[in-house]
Amino acid sequence: MTERLFLADSSVLRFKARVVSRRPGAVVLDRTAFYATSGGQPHDTGTLGGVRVTGVEAEGENVVHAVDGEVPEGEIEGVVDGGRRRDHLEQHHGQHLLSRAFIESCGAETVSFHLGPESSTIDLDVRDLTAGEADRAEDLANLVVRENRPVEVTWHTLDEAKTLGLRKLPDGIDRVRVVTVRDFDRCACGGTHPSRTGDISQIRILGWEKSKGKVRLTFVCGGRALRDARERARVLEAAGAALGTGALEAAAAAGRAREDLRAANRELGVLRERAAAGESAELLAKAQPAGKARLVRASFPGRDVPALLVLTKSLSEFPDAVFVLTGKGALVAGCGAAVALDPGAAFKEAALAAGVRGGGRGRLYQGAGGVDAAALEAAADAMSRRLAAEVSR
Ligand SMILES: [Zn+2]
Fold first, then answer.
1. Is 86-240 in CATH node 3.40.50.300?
2. Do domains 3-80 and 280-392 have the same CATH topology?
3. Distance from the CA of 89 to the center of ligand 1, in angstroms?
4. Quick one: pLDDT band at residue 172, thresholds 50, 70, 90?
5. CA-to-CA distance for 163 and 143, rounded, in angstroms?
6. Residue 201: how many CA atoms within 13 Å on its side-chain side?
7. pLDDT per residue as tens digits for the range 97-109
8. Most buried among 39, 67, 237, 246, by the most CB within 10 A?
């Protein structure tokens, strides 16, 4: 059985221990300060006898350390990575405080916890959550942090533990470890905790979403809360600068900019249609006659499919127009209502030759993705000749 040193004192990061058993890549000690993955909290990392610890798992009463080298026999020194431990402790204990705060502020019980690399989540046993409820819970949890209340660890028999009003009791053990935040929260837990709530420094709710009849709430604590606040402030600052305003005015300025852009796009649409009508008339004036139709074959190397479609919409309104247009890797072809022609087969042939993907129906066909400009132009010319022959029959 491995004695778990963090159960008595989570601040122990350096310890001496005896190697009990070894197998390639794994070591069991008589005692360890390494926390094994459990309860939604990932394992600690660090070194054993100078060899890196890459994973820690409980195996029955033993703690198995996964190592990436050979740990010497006998007595060795273990060193837990203090930065990672502190981060995990902050998220884990912060979760205790936040979960209790949700019970106090709106009766929402926590049913699960996950500690992620960037942020953590709890699932609350409620269908929905209001911003007011979230704010009240966040305020209460942070008040308890600022009050710097003592956090005590005590051990009890199962019968004693049943009298303590704990929310959940673990099965199959006869001694229960109870973590108590004075006059606020008490629960059975084998995790890493500080000796005072002030160590958490801050708890921030980042957001929540409804998930499978519950609410999944994302939060960060301690150093993560500081970094998150700093990052968000910088993003807002940059957004404000980009919009020519201060950070706190950025949202309103972005809303106005979006409205302005919508209006400008509407205006642009009208102008494009007007320009396309003029361009169509010019193209048709120079078009080559083909039977009763007029054939337009033109290249616009800078235009993509949407830009070409503005022009074809206008060209299609001339009943006798037949057109084959190329753009930036794009091919568009069609005809007006009075022309007895389905350009589908010719388009398919040209698209295949030019490496263009697309299709169409009735009178208009379009495609994009051509990478060889010369092949595209040659295919469009060939298509144009084929359509000219078809309408002249
Ligand atoms: Zn805990």
1. no
2. no
3. 9
4. confident
5. 28
6. 14
7. 999 999 999 999 9
8. 67
Length reported for the chain? 393
What confidence score (pLDDT) does residue 165 get? 81
Q: What is the mean pLDDT of residues 280-305?
A: 94
Q: Domain limits of the chain? A: 3-80, 86-240, 280-392
How much distance in Å is there from the Cα of 321 to the middle of ligand 1?
Answer: 76
CATH class label, 3-80: mainly beta
**What is the token pair recorded at 326?**
């190329």
Mean pLDDT score across all residues of the chain? 94
Distance 194 CA to ligand 1 centre (A): 10
Domain spanning 280-392, CATH architecture = Roll (3.10)
Question: Ligand 1 centre and the CA of 177: distance in Å?
Answer: 10
Pairing of strands 3-4, 31-32: parallel
Cα separation, 119 vs 133, in Å, equals 20
Q: How far is the CA of 90 from the centre of ligand 1 (A)?
A: 10
Distance 151 CA to ligand 1 centre (A): 11
